[in-house]
Amino acid sequence: MLLLIVFVPLTGAFTLPIAGRVSDRLRNLLALGFVLISLVLTAAISMPVFSGETVTSAAIFNNVYNFVLYADGLAVFMAFVSALISAIIIFYSFGYISHYENQNEYYLMVVLFFGGMMGLVFSGNLIFLYLFWEITAITSWRLIGFFREKQHVLRADKAFMVTMFGSVLMLVGFISIYQQTGSFELAAIKSALGTGHLSNLAAALILAGILSKSATLPLHTWLPDAGVAPSPVTALLHAALLVKIGVYVFARLFVATFTVDEFWHTAVPVIAAVSALVSAGAAMVDTDLKRIIAYSTVSQIGFIFLGLSIGNEIGVAGALLYIMMHGLAKGGLFLCAGIVEQNTKIKDITKLGGLIKTMPITAVSFLLCAFSVMGIPPFGGFFSKYMVIAGAVQSGHLWISLTFLVGAFLTIIYLLRVFNMVFLGEVRFAGVKEGSAVMVISVAVLAVLSLAGGILIYWPCQFVLSTIQQLPGIVK
Amino acid sequence: MLSLFVLLPFLAIVMLNLPLKTVTRQLALWFGIALSAGQVFVVIFQPDVFWNGTDLLGRFFTLRLQADNLSMVMLLSIGIVTFAAILVGRQTIADSRLRFNFMNLVLLSLIGMNGTVLLTDLFSLYIFIEVVAISSFILIAFQRDLNALEGAFKYIILSAVATVLMLLSVSVLLMAAGDTSFSSVAAAVKNSSSSHFVRFAIGIFICGLFIKGGLVPFHGWLPAAYSMAPAAVSVLLAGIVTKVSGIYALIRLSTSVFGPDSSLNAVLMIAGAVSIVIGALAATGQSDFKRMLAYSSISQVGYIILALGCGTKLALVGAVFHLFNHSIFKSLLFVNSAAVEQQTGTSDMDKMGGLGSRMPYTNATSLIAFLSTAGVPPLAGFWSKLIIVIALWQSGYYIYAFIAILSSIITLGYLLSMQRRVFFGILSDKLQAVREAGFGIVFPACVLAAITVGVGLSFPFIFNSFIIPIGAFLK
């Protein structure tokens, strides 16, 4: 079952260019189908997992490179959220990408990326975790450079190199864990470490990889630049999946598997706080629609790191909820930006205005998603933000909590500014239409999910709380 | 029947040059293909008759040949790369007379390489390395224009220095050991390890091999030779010739003849690390496709030598595995450069761009090759680098491990810029007419790419059964 979740999209991706030769429609449906299969299977696997079991499937080669897939609550939660958002984004792509060349490559890369993500989430061996990590890096490199212009390709190269820089450091960290424990398998590492904690060198190296992938200060610069990608790609990479990889690996390693030195419980929140503030500041002054949302992502990732790194129950629960709520809402924002960009051909917010008249559904969806990111009750984003900050206060990090409150306040300002400049005010253009039905439905679904996630907070909360029971690293 | 590895190509050359030129010209190509494919076959399927049958022919010769796991890996790489080079040669060399000469020289080179990896005698090793070198000189100068002659001339001069150094060393060691077989030289080295005379001999032999293998600071000839040679010859040279005559000999001699020796290992590690960094940095500044690949070769060879210097069993396994992987993905990159050069008429990357849409197979295989070179999983190059870094880390060489792994970022950087300038991007108007290269180039490219992907994906399966046993050549 786990093997199917991972290998249906991974191998299926390579059939897409062939299907594309037969018919575009077949290829699109297949792409969506592969993701939906993973989604359904993940949902199916969640039943036993949430009653407290774990599911493992492994290919044992009797060496350190055993291929182990392992599903606990954390993995299933992450996989479910990723698959859900990916499915919506691929659906949106049907409308968006149909105007461009190289569609076969696009679907190949998106589904391959998704498969890599699923593999990473369920991976129980550090080497394979790294392997899937790089698959996501290669595919996002091709996706960012999708439009082939020199500037775009350069930025794609930059994104690849920055994340690769982080990831090779992380690989060295893994090797030093191997040196310390004699295994790359998470379960074996856990028992070998016992009550001892991970060496600080290994922790620092792995953290470098995580920060580069999650675009946290000081390795965040590739993310705003990567906004040149097609909008569904930016939504996929920046909002829903790629940046969450780092966060997930942080949760997987530092919360679920190892205990780390006390030092990191202070250092990581500080890095996160600086990252949240600086990027919020950058979002205030930038004028490119997608760059603002991208900076906002950098800032919001800081909140997730805060929740995970303080490590108490409410903080981690909040952070996991945050992954879900932020993915939904930020995905929605990027997709709305895609509609605006495609129909007006402008990304500079100072040149836009009054679009609420011509594209009302997009505008309302944007606003709803923005409310969720800001953390306005009763949207989903409110609960997650509240829990993360409550967790930080509870653990005694008062100053850091205050910094994050400022960050949250800035979020409200810059998102309202964007909404104001793009959708309100004078109508600057004539003849701008609403996006195609497929695209508008996708953003509306994301907006509704963001709202529903808040109103029906009981269910996701149950999801998350049962996940937390399986994590040993929680500070009680 | 090990002697067949040397004798069959020799017989082929003799037959091809019988006075029946019209027939033999047609046959030359098929002889080469059959021999190289046959070599791959006997190594992979290990037919018992071949490896254990009584070597009747060999009795007439005094060569003492021996095939251990290291030789097997080398024979496999030689077979694969020669096969690819012959196919590329068929496609890129238009004149049938020249093509015939090319085939003869490739067969000569095959004799030299097979001999080198099977021999157990220092002096014969030297002879066969020279056989390889002579065929390479002529192959590089094949087109007889000024550039080609320059490349060949540089190679001849530095190679002559290497020849003198190695010959001198052999004569000194002959005095010390009374015999030049590996076992007696090894015994003599062990007994007189403090003798300055012997140490000097070892030192200059190693220097000679550094020149042959193109390691920094003896790498001056390599970029010129690789980039000036005809496309098919670059594939052969970069893929296997320097690896056999320089790197294989270094591995063999430093592990079982001159060493293991801690000061020798320290020298190897420094040379390896310097080659990695200098090669990678020099490659970043190149705008000629083949020159960039040549510098990249220097850098990758550095990894092999660095691991060799580390000296643990795991490190040597990593070194040999990387040698194999490197010969596959570097030949693949040179095959791709041949395709691009043939179709666009230039190897200047600044004049290209957007070729990916016109040459889909070349684009895809080049993508695989460069990701493998940069050590990106799940391709083969990742696993060999991983083994090397793990081995370095386990032996406590943390700094070297960091150098090795951070250089792969530089590697990624220049290869990304290559991919961007050649294949990615928007097609310029001048290049609208470009088409995919012919079958003779696309087919070997696909085969080599399939090997890289296949080895990479199946690595965990074959780790216990094929990769670790490579280390058995260590006594």
What does the model show?
The complex is a heterodimer of chains A (476) and B (475). Chain A is an all-alpha fold and 476 residues long. Chain A contains 21 helices and two strands. A two-stranded antiparallel sheet of chain A has the order 1-2. In chain A, helix 14 (289-310) runs antiparallel to helix 19 and helix 15 (313-344) runs antiparallel to helix 17 (360-374). Chain A starts with a helix and ends in a 7-residue tail after the last helix. Chain B has a domain at 324-475. Chain B has 18 helices and no strands. Chain B has helices at residues 4-16, 21-45, 48-52, 69-92, 96-118, 122-140, 146-177, 182-191, 196-213, 221-228, 231-256, 262-284, 289-310, 313-344, 360-373, 380-394, 398-422, 439-467. At the A-B interface, helix 6 and helix 7 of A face helix 16, helix 17 and helix 18 of B.
Outline type of chain A: globular
Tell me the domain tally of chain A: 2
According to DSSP, the number of beta strands of chain B is: 0
The ordered H/E elements of chain B are HHHHHHHHHHHHHHHHHH
SSE layout and pairing:
The complex is a heterodimer of chains A (about 475) and B (about 475).
Chain A: H1 2-12, H2 16-22, H3 24-50, E1 55-59, E2 67-71, H4 73-96, H5 103-122, H6 126-144, H7 150-181, H8 186-193, H9 200-213, H10 222-225, H11 231-240, H12 242-255, H13 264-285, H14 289-310, H15 313-344, H16 355-358, H17 360-374, H18 380-394, H19 398-423, H20 437-455, H21 458-469
Antiparallel strand pairs in A: 1-2
Helix pairs in contact in A: 1-3, 1-5, 2-3, 2-5, 3-4, 3-5, 4-5, 4-11, 4-15, 4-20, 5-6, 6-7, 7-8, 7-9, 9-12, 11-15, 12-14, 13-14, 13-19, 14-15, 14-18, 14-19, 15-17, 15-18, 15-20, 15-21, 17-19, 17-20, 18-19, 18-20
Chain B: H1 4-16, H2 21-45, H3 48-52, H4 69-92, H5 96-118, H6 122-140, H7 146-177, H8 182-191, H9 196-213, H10 221-228, H11 231-256, H12 262-284, H13 289-310, H14 313-344, H15 360-373, H16 380-394, H17 398-422, H18 439-467
